[in-house]
Amino acid sequence: MPRIGVFTCWCGENIARNVDVQSVSEQAAQLPGVRCSQTCKYMCSDPGQKLIRDTIAAEQLDGVVIASCSPHMHLKTFRKAAAQAGLNPYLIEMANIREHCSWVHPDKARATAKAVDLIRMAAAKVRHNRALEPIKVPVTRKALVVGGGVAGIQAALDLADAGIPVALVEREPSIGGKMAGLSETFPTLDCSQCILTPRMVEVAQHPNITLYTCSEVEQVEGYVGNFQVTIRKRARYIDIDKCTGCGQCWNVCPSKKTPSEFDYGMGNRTAIYVPFPQAVPARPVIDRDACLRLTKGRCGLCAKKCQAGAIRFEDQDELVREDVGAVIVATGYQLYEIGRRGEQDRLSGYGEYGYGQYPDVISSLQFERLLSASGPTGGELRRPSDGTIPKTVVFISCVGSRDNAKGMSYCSKICCMVNAKHTMLYKHKVHDGQAHVFYMDIRAGGKNYDEFVRRAIEQDGAHYHRGRVSKITQEDGRLIVRGVDTLAGEPLTIVADLVVLASAMRPAAGVEELAQKVNVGYDEFGFLCESHPKLRPVETNAAGVFVCGACHGPKDIPESVAQASAAAGKVLLMFSRDQLHREPEIAHIQESHCAGCFACRRGCPYHAIDAAEIRDRQGLLVRRVARVNPGLCMGCGTCVALCPSKSADLEGFSEQQVYAMVECLR
Amino acid sequence: MEIGYYPGCALHGSSNDYEMSVRACLSTLGVHLRELDDWICCGATAAHSLNRKLAVALPARNLGLAERDGMDELLAPCPMCSAQLMKARCVLAEDQAFRSEISEIVELKVRGTTRVCNLIQIFQRVGYESIQKIAVQRLEGFRPACYYGCLLTRPPGVVQFDDCEHPSSMETLLKGLGAGPVEWNYKTECCGAGMTMSNESTVLELGHRILSNAAAHGANCMVVACPMCHVNLDMKQSAINQRYSAAHDMVVYYLSDLVGLALGISPDALGIPRHFVVRK
Fold first, then answer.
1. A404 to chain B: nearest residue by CA?
2. Residue B166: its chain A contacts at CB < 8 A?
3. Residue A242 contacts residue A199 (beta carbons within 8 Å)
4. pLDDT (mean) for A372-384
5. What value does the mean pLDDT take over residues B163-170?
6. What is the 3-state secondary structure (H, E, C) of A201-228?
7. How far, in Å, CA of A325 to CA of A506, rounded?
8. What is the CATH number of domain A143-234+317-332+508-575?
9. Please, are residues B31 and B1 in contact by the beta-carbon 8 Å criterion?
10. Which of A169, A292, B100, B112 has the most CB atoms around its CB within 10 Å?
């Protein structure tokens, strides 16, 4: 005869407001197999847990039902309490009478009846629970960080400083990411390069960091603690070890007309180039599409000039394998493409702003390059069309953000601060200039952020207009910006010399492919999904894979850095044990029944099912069956649903348990 | 291809040159127009700003007639008409109670099954490539400023046609026929529309701006797909010249005029000599 204890929580008023807890507890006591039924105002509190522990010991319970909140919230808490009382933690079941009941049903009588039913089901299930032990898997104490922007740099350095070897993979020829291209940063106006480049150099010199630039993650196999990663190192055509970075090669390169990616097309670069003077590694790379030698077989001036003999035109892509225990994804963002309307791309509008058509309509990242001392104008603010100093500049917020019709529904979060910063930097460079900002709302939440915006308005005299811009046109070399000031209630036309569009943040190109390789979910905009928005913000639903920075959602530098350190901390925590413990609630396949159809393998979203060979004593192959890799299985149950011979089942959520839950409702 | 045809007041009245042009052009393209029997006002005049029920009931009756006659699609070459009809169709689709009420008022069952389209959409339906194949004359020398005005693309949720602030469908069509449409600034600005009667000075000011901008961007003619735009830019051009001491000499074509010329239809058959400003 089972000895089940039911513990019903009031959750203060959260449950008790709409559910008669006392009545629920009394009815639960009458359920088959229930030995005792108790309530507590806060079951998760220390006295509540003590009640559970004491009752388990006193009544010698072999099954426990906790009727309280969602298991996402407190299952771990209660399992721990049970384990302390000597009960196997997997003999605990939770009935969610808060999120699934009291919070959503206003009718108290019916909510109470539903709460009893939920407990009835949990009690029916727990009778079939088995004692389980956590799965132990070995762990490789090495980490992979994908993306070498400020988030990836921070995560890599934190891990490396703690003694963990790190492979840092960056797609571009240099690490540094978007931050390396910024001029100055809000809200302190400290120079972006000055704070970032020492960190970049640290990465390059750190004995624990292996840096892969011009590289991408090709394939990820394995599971938490034991990933095998294949990295594609694209041909750089330079021997990094021989090269001294002297610069002779790019000085002689005759192909000088390629728009610089680092300057967002504001300036040109040569075919052999370092993206920017502080690049790490400070070695050039050859653009295979622009190099005359590689495209047409002539030239080769750089090789003739190079005294170190470091130019290697015959260079090929190379695949490198790294074994790591954890992966941190920090691939960052790109800007929304303004005005480019592709057939498939619903995320592009604002053709009426003339971006790409009028040279003096630029994006905020391009404006950063015009302000930057390392930029194409040497830090002197000159507009792209004719090189004059713009006397009137209009900044437009929310281009693509908060716009369901043409862009994204979300707020890109940083643009209000970026605009305020830009108006200040502009005023500091052009004293007699006037900055105008069109905005929807000013969202400057953050330490010293609102004060910063006030400073832009009050001290540096930026004119803020609440309203949208409907159209930008060009007349006589000037830009006619037509919009509305909704506070004044009238249309507004500003004749400007330069217009800067604060376009929305989108996840970097290719993040979806990467997410699929590491089995991490992403939302409709491509931002990677965390495991829990509040309590597990850097973990993902793929064990051993963490996220940080703007690949997870729009973020500024301080937030990206904080999140990167958090991700590194989580990896360190994982690496602090000899073995990893995983929840044992995973699928298993009864091999004697398995017909080897492999429907489960095709359906498994985590690639956790392998084919195993069954051989007789002579070593002859008898048949092939499906076998679950306990390191990879996430216990989703897809295989259980797919298996035609009913050989697959889920520990802790067996078909027997589910049927028992359904049966008890009849 | 047979299609329902709703001329509206303009095409049977002041802008019958537009009707000539549309009819000539579409018949060459093999589109047979079947005029809606017993059609009434679309409600674009005063109704839409004064009385919501009347503003829906007027176009709804026309939609009901089209349904009665089994028309799947109704061409309204005047964008005011097409916008009114489309708007009514949207409103009726959303609100069933209102739909029954309106059906009772107009004494016709209105279900909203007939789709409404403008002139450009018909050209798109025929296919730009097919038009190019049938065309016998390249529109060399034409550098039109394509003018969409206010209603061809708006409101975007209702008409669902082209990019509402930055349309390009006329340019694409005309480029394919050999013309060299110019990029200019006032594609979707207001021409003053019905204010031409009540507030002429505003209309003249707006028209002057539009004509000047088109000329400044190198246009040697303009293309419209709206009778009201044509009135305000073509008929009013001399008044504009007088008021602003300007010397605009801008021929304003209907879109069907230029397509028709490319198809080899004579200017007379298209009604072009009936414009106020004509190419000498």
1. B157
2. 339, 349-352
3. no
4. 92
5. 89
6. HHHHHCCCEEEECCEEEEEEEEECCEEE
7. 29
8. 3.50.50.60
9. yes
10. A169
Residues A356-375 have a mean pLDDT of 94
**Residue range A158-180: mean pLDDT, rounded:** 97
Q: Residue A319 above 70 pLDDT?
A: yes
Q: Going from the N-terminus, what domains does chain B have, and what CATH number goes with each?
A: 2-119 (1.20.1050.140), 137-264 (3.40.50.11810)
- Tell me the pTM: 0.83
A471 contacts B185? CB cut-off 8 A: yes
- Residue B114: closest CA among B151, B153, B88: B88
Question: Which H or E element spans position A305?
Answer: helix A301-305
With a CB-CB cutoff of 8 Å, which residues 213-242 of chain B face chain A?
213, 216
Inter-chain contact B166–A339, Cβ cutoff 8 Å? yes
A215 vs A221: CA distance, rounded Å:
18
**Which residues in chain A are closer than 8 Å to B216, comparing Cβ atoms?**
475
Structure tokens at A78: 């209660």
CB contact under 8 A, A405 and B216: no
What are the extents of the domains in chain A? 4-126, 143-234+317-332+508-575, 248-305, 338-506, 587-650
Distance from CA of A332 to the nearest CA of B (A): 30
Q: Per-residue confidence at B49, pLDDT binned at 50, 70, 90?
A: confident
**Residues of chain A that touch chain B, judged by Cβ-Cβ distance less than 8 Å:** 339, 341, 349-352, 357, 405, 470-471, 473-475, 480
Please say if the pLDDT value at position B23 is more than 60: yes
Contacts of A405 in chain B (CB under 8 A): 156
Q: Does residue A346 have a pLDDT over 60?
A: no
Q: Tell me, what's the pLDDT at A630?
A: 86
pLDDT tens string B204-250: 999 999 999 999 999 999 999 999 999 999 999 999 999 999 999 99
Asked if residue A340 has pLDDT above 80, the reply is: no
Q: Which amino acid is at A270?
A: T
CATH class of the domain whose range is A587-650 = alpha beta
- Residue-level pLDDT at A342: 52
Asked whether the bond before A187 is cis by omega within 30 degrees of 0, the reply is yes
- Residues of chain A contacting residue B186, judged by C-beta atoms under 8 Å apart: 473
